[in-house]
What we know:
The chain is of the alpha/beta class and 260 residues long. It folds into two domains: 6-200, 2-enoyl-CoA Hydratase, Chain A, domain 1 (Alpha-Beta Complex); 204-250, Lyase 2-enoyl-coa Hydratase, Chain  A, domain 2. The protein has helices at 31-46, 68-71, 76-81, 86-90, 110-117, 144-152, 154-163, 169-174, 185-200, 204-219, 222-236, 240-250, and strands spanning 6-10, 15-20, 52-56, 61-63, 99-103, 106-108, 120-124, 128-130, 167-168, 180-182. The strands form two sheets. Strands 1-2-3-5-7-10 form a six-stranded mixed sheet, sandwiched between helices. It has a four-stranded mixed sheet with strand order 4-6-8-9. A hairpin with a 4-residue loop joins strand 1 and strand 2 (15-20). The longest helix has 16 residues, at 31-46. The model has no long low-confidence stretch (mean pLDDT 97). Hexanoyl-coenzyme A (HXC) binds at residues 25-26, 28, 64-69, 85, 106, 108-110, 132-133, 136, 140-142.
Amino acid sequence: NQxxxxxxxxxxxxxGKITLNRPRALNALSSSLFQELNHALQNFDNDESxxxxxxxxxxKAFAAGADIKEMKDLTFSKAYNTNFIAxxxxxxxxxxxxxxxxxxxxxxxxxxxxALMADILYCSSSAMFGQPEIKLGxxxxxxxxxxxxxxxxxxxxxxxxxxxxxxxxxEAAQWGVAARxxxxxxxxxxxxxxxxxxxxxxxxxxxRAAKEAVNKSQETxxxxxxxxxRKVFHGLFGSKDQKVGxxxxxxxxxxxxxxx
Length: 260
Ligand code: HXC
């Protein structure tokens, strides 16, 4: 393992797994941890044998936030001049393979924001999400006020962000933040790996296009989004995998994707 703060492995075929591993600080997202995370994500994104990426932490903490000890003495000028945490949004939104977050334990502040950056979020019922920044005299800085609001609506997001109170994994699932909630941490990680394997077995060309189309809906109006979807849909009739997939259906066979 070339990293100090994360563990990287390929367990299921086609699935890259990244485990945040800074247990003494409950996986607080220091700059060096985030650099390693970005590096590992990019490596998986560039690796042809990887189809999907699972991102998880420990049973106690997905991540308890940005590293408060690192931020404590930061000044406005230093934050501005160094574009503090810009690296958080420079890599993850550009990863083209699906990222599934398996969230157990604390996912607070930047940890909650990191989980919200994933394409699919799974959690255990006891997971503890929240944007407690207000209690530190700051506000969310890595998408919390935007992605959380988009996910759960303004009134709920406002209540959470203004009071800093936590919400549970069960609530995350009820409110649509999480796609699924599991009873235990182990089941959550296994569930994420299983879904990741399933996605990794699809045509990677179609998976990539589907991720782009869904993400487009988060950034654009309906008419433009529908146009975009239809163009990509048309484009896929120029792919080999469209022929592979539809011929296999007609011939009652399993498709053997070419990813072309
Ligand atoms: C640095 C942290 C940390 C953090 C925990 N630790 N969270 N260090 N940054 N965000 C460290 C503690 O200092 C402690 O180290 C060790 O991890 C264990 O934590 P405890 O507090 O002793 O554990 P516990 O009593 O179980 O409480 C767990 C907790 C609490 C409720 C999660 O740690 C907590 O409230 N953490 C801060 C959560 C938070 O405010 N997050 C938002 C950060 S701001 P020592 O050395 O004392 O043993 C943010 C801004 C994002 O994320 C903006 C964009 C980047």
